[in-house]
Every structure is written in C-alpha cells, then in structure tokens.
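Task: fold both queries, return tokens.
Query 1:
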Amino acid sequence: MDPRKVTTEATRKATTEAKVPAKRSKATSHLPVHRRQFYHSRTGQPMTLEEVISDQDSGNEADHEVETEAPRLGIDYSSMKNNEIVELFIQMWNSFAKKNMVLVDGHIPWACEAFSRLYKKELHDNLPLDMCWRLFMIRHWDFGILDAATINKCNTIIKNYSPSSDMDVDKNDHTSKT
C-alpha cells in the first residue's frame, strides 16, 4: 500500500473525526497538582512542583538511554526523526488528545484504547505508523502511566482488524465493506 495514500487518509481522519466518548479511569492519579509527584519525561527522575511549572523546556536534551538502547535493538532513530510518518503520528495523537481532552496521565489508558479503535485501519496497514504507536505505548509503560493489560488490548484491537469486515461494535455498524 502506498504510504502517501495512508498518510493522506490518516491526516484527513485526524482532522475530521468526532470526539470519542470518554470513560472513567481507575487510576489513582487524581490528586491535586501540589500533592502529586511528577517525573522528568526523559530521565524518569522525580521533579519538584517548581521545576514542573517553570518555563524551562527540556525538550532539546539528549536522551542518553535511548542512544545506548537503539543500536542494541537495531533501531535507527536518526532516520526516524526525519521521517514524515513520525510527524504524522504526532499530528494524529495531538489532534486526538486535543479533541478528547486527554489532559492528565490518568486519561492515558482509555485514550490509548480509543486511539487504537479510531485508527485501527491506519495502524494495521502502515507498519512504520504502527511502530511509532507501539514505541509511544512502551514509553508510557516505562514511566508507569500505561499498564501491560491496556497495551495488550490496544495491540489486539489492531491485530484483529480485518479489511474485509470493518465492523464497529460501539456504533452497532455491522456492514461488510468489500
């Protein structure tokens, strides 16, 4: 399948899809901000509330852990950074998160399941996009925001997608598209 066609379809879907109904999370991270413990997104080290609220951005810091793990796993992150598939994934997730008000880490489990259901066709048909999604989920699991059961549900949703029978159980749409 032509990646540009999937990219165009996914971009269109990201900008035109309606909100996904939110489900309550069973996470215990609903404490007031001043009572919560925050962790650095790259190092995983605890942060003070002042560090979290400050204007200092750590987005340009080098991730030494990823740099040492990438060669061992055979992943070439240097080519992925310039890949438009990664940019597409970021656009899809950001659009989804904005429309569905994914605001705190307690929202991540239901958001990941809903994202998998919404984009199951694109993720199933486009391996690089699927790999971005899986790395995203692994990163959230690594920081304790996402559990293994949710990752398994998301992977099962994508794995069980069948192009010959595109059924949406939530909408009770049992039409076969051929």
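Query 1 returned. Query 2:
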Amino acid sequence: GNSRGTQMPTGQHHMVRTDTLELKSEIEKKIGRAKTESYLNLLSKFLSLKISKSDFDKLIIATVKKENIGLHNALLRGIITNVCLSKSNTT
C-alpha cells in the first residue's frame, strides 16, 4: 500500500521563513491601520505573557473579526516558525 504523508518530498525538508510583513499588510487591508496597531499591540502583550490566552482570544476576535482569524493564525504561526528557525540557525 501507498502510505501517503510519511515521506517528505525531496528538497522540502527545511522550513522556510514566513513573510510576516506580507501577512501584516493583508491584515491592515482588511481591518485598517488603527485596528492593526491595536492588534499588533495585543499580539506583543500575549507573546510577552502579559495577557492570558483566553483574554487574548476574546480581544483578537473583537479586533480582527472572525472572518480574518485565518490571517491572524497564519501570522502567529509565521512568527513562531521564524523564531524557531532563527534559534536553530544559531547553533
């Protein structure tokens, strides 16, 4: 049988940095500059553990709206990916 998903395609085994600036500008196009400022401020507070995950979730939905959560998730994943990559490149 062909077990899909177990083998990585050749040349695809390293993670690529995410263009977080592109994602930020997408978010800004959807919600405007002022809300984007609030959003990035919230993100910063959450990542520095100044607000709880439950508060963060509520505030994020209020700020970016439900329909843009996918963009928010992509940005968050991108930030985490980039941090992991920069850490792994320093060893």
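Both queries returned. Flag for query 2: The chain has one domain: 20-89.
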